[in-house]
Design goal:
This protein is mainly alpha-helical. The protein has eleven helices and no strands.
């Protein structure tokens, strides 16, 4: 526990010291919330009615939060990899896997806090905390997913930026499912957050949980994370 506490303090120092990480972890999510709260209602009232698209807009915007924290996670791990910290951990009291799990959990929990607050602070949708929690947890899992993929594929920060941009686009593809009126949309189910969007849409449109969507979403995310964790350890 003492070791984890020291790691937590060190992480906060690293984020505060690096302006890019500081802005990504704290400032940018707040800006996203403020813009969503003020700009979208203003456009809806003064330019064109948008209330019917609020659910879709909510999904389009809220996913930025776990992606942003995935960016922070990826760069923190990459810095530690470049400093050979991951190699040193092999002979330290704290195991390497414990350290990596802590690292992913730390940024994922920060991501979850913003995700949970997002409906309340933006006012785009009305949803109970209990109904929203499963999909919020699914959204949170994008943070470690993105961070691990970046460190598996990229060998430096320039490549990592390209990976983040590409994956950012990939995770938005499931939104096209809402414009497909037949079962062909399930082809997009290979992308984990497709099931998150489907589950959230069911709650917002029908007022009930679809536990099949939620179950598939969790299974797919954990399978992806297990595979990514294996390849990350193999590479590093």
């Amino acid at each position: 526990m003492v070791q984890i506490r020291k790691l937590l303090v060190n992480d906060l120092r690293n984020i505060v010291r690096d302006r890019l990480l500081l802005y990504s972890a704290f400032l940018i999510p707040l800006i996203i919330i403020i813009i969503t709260r003020l700009i979208i209602p203003w456009i809806s009232e003064n330019v064109a009615p948008m209330e019917q698209f609020y659910s879709l807009l909510f999904m389009f915007i809220v996913i930025m939060i776990p992606l942003m924290f995935g960016f922070v996670l990826g760069f923190l791990i990459m810095d530690e990899r470049d400093e050979n910290l991951l190699t040193v951990l092999r002979v330290m009291p704290i195991s390497r896997n414990t350290y990596l799990l802590y690292r992913m959990m730390f940024l994922s929990v920060l991501s979850l806090i913003y995700i949970l607050l997002f409906p309340i602070l933006t006012g785009l949708i009305q949803i109970s905390f209990i109904d929203y929690l499963p999909t919020a947890l699914l959204l949170m899992l994008l943070t470690p997913t993105l961070g691990l993929i970046a460190n598996i594929v990229a060998t430096n920060k320039v490549q990592a930026f390209a990976v983040f941009k590409t994956l950012g686009g990939v995770f938005y593809i499931p939104l096209f499912a809402f414009f497909i009126n037949n079962d062909l949309k399930y082809i997009l189910g290979i992308i984990p957050n497709f099931w998150t969007f489907m589950a959230l849409d069911t709650i917002l449109t029908k007022g009930s949980q679809n536990y099949v969507y939620i179950g598939i979403g969790f299974c797919l995310h954990f399978v992806f994370l297990g595979i990514l964790f294996y390849f990350f350890n193999k590479k590093n």
